[in-house]
Design goal:
This protein is of the alpha/beta class. The protein is built from 11 helices and 9 strands. The chain folds into 2 domains: about 180 residues, Rossmann fold, CATH 3.40.50; about 120 residues, no CATH class.
Length: about 300
């Protein structure tokens, strides 16, 4: 029986890939021992137990940033020994064979605990611009999976994003009608789906809210996924957000205004031929087998011990 420790949490961008990996491990090895490490405040606190996995919580441990290191660094170093002890104990008591981290606050103690216990470590980075924990952790393992080619991490292998099997095998055409009924949408009217980043995107939400009347008057329905938001920098890397492949349009944050929606977005929505071509190009860039590719990386780490 193989024992796995999975670490990650805070946002859906970390929790969902971790759960996709956990689901696949359970599907392949029904008797595998799986424990997840997270915080009591993040999404993992509800999503992990709801999926039937054990969750060990550690203190929320954000890395101090250089600009405010003196004012916040002491909090990190005060909580670090406790978090590290909890993860180390879990690894030893459960005789963990491999540690898998997907970034976020909780991953750093797991990476250090893996190093101290000489446990194989596998890392996944879902963002084009890697987080601090993964930048640090990737230096100590050859098993690093990334979603985007060109993500600046050592030992990186492009694997895509681990997805639930329901998403990997999704046939959009077969579920479209049911999805429209579920959300109370007109079955014959085109739909604009709006979503932001891992915690939402304030400027997207604000601009779309201010443009709803214009969009609706142009004949579209709007399905808007809204969450808490904070500004994020845009990385400049090849392959980010399928733009270079012709499958997307990149808009600078300060240029995404109601005027841009009126003059750029609405004409794009009306150009069915262009949308169809962009869809094909975006699909070619993406990987639906990210979970299997990530599991191959984990298997390699296990085989090397």
């Amino acid at each position: 029986m193989t024992s796995y420790l999975l670490a990650g949490g805070g946002t859906a961008g970390h929790v969902n890939p971790m759960l996709a990996i956990a689901d696949e491990i359970r599907r392949r090895e029904p008797d595998a021992r799986i424990v997840c490490v997270g915080t009591a405040e993040g999404l993992e606190a509800t999503l992990v137990p709801a999926r039937g996995f054990e969750l060990i919580t550690i203190p929320r441990l954000p890395f101090p940033r250089p600009r405010n290191f003196l004012s916040t660094g002491w909090r990190f170093f005060a909580k670090w020994p406790t978090a590290l002890k909890i993860v180390e104990r879990a690894i030893r008591e459960r005789q963990v064979d491999v540690v898998v981290g997907v970034g976020g606050y909780v991953s750093a103690p797991a990476y250090e605990a893996a190093r101290r216990t000489k446990t194989p470590l596998v890392i996944h980075e879902a963002n084009a611009k890697p987080g601090i924990a993964n930048v640090w952790g990737a230096r100590s393992t050859p098993y690093v999976g990334v979603t985007f080619a060109g993500t600046p991490l050592p030992h990186a292998t492009t694997v895509g994003t681990p997805l639930r099997r329901e998403i990997e095998n999704l046939n959009i055409a077969s579920v479209q009608a049911d999805a429209r009924r579920h959300f109370g949408l007109n079955p014959t009217q085109p739909v604009l789906l709006v979503t932001g980043g891992s915690l939402g995107a304030r400027s997207i939400n604000r601009t779309v809210a201010a443009s709803v009347a214009t969009i609706v008057d142009a004949g579209y329905q709007v399905l808007h996924i809204v969450g808490n938001s904070r500004p994020e920098g845009l990385p400049s890397l090849p392959g980010y957000v399928v733009v270079n492949a012709g499958g997307g349009v990149l808009v600078l944050d300060d240029e995404f205004t109601p005027e841009w929606v009126r003059t750029e977005l609405l004409p794009l929505l009306a150009d069915q031929a262009r949308l169809a071509e962009m869809s094909k190009k975006a699909e070619k860039v993406g990987m639906r087998d990210g979970t299997a590719r990530m599991m191959n990386l984990i298997d390699r780490a296990l085989s090397q011990g």
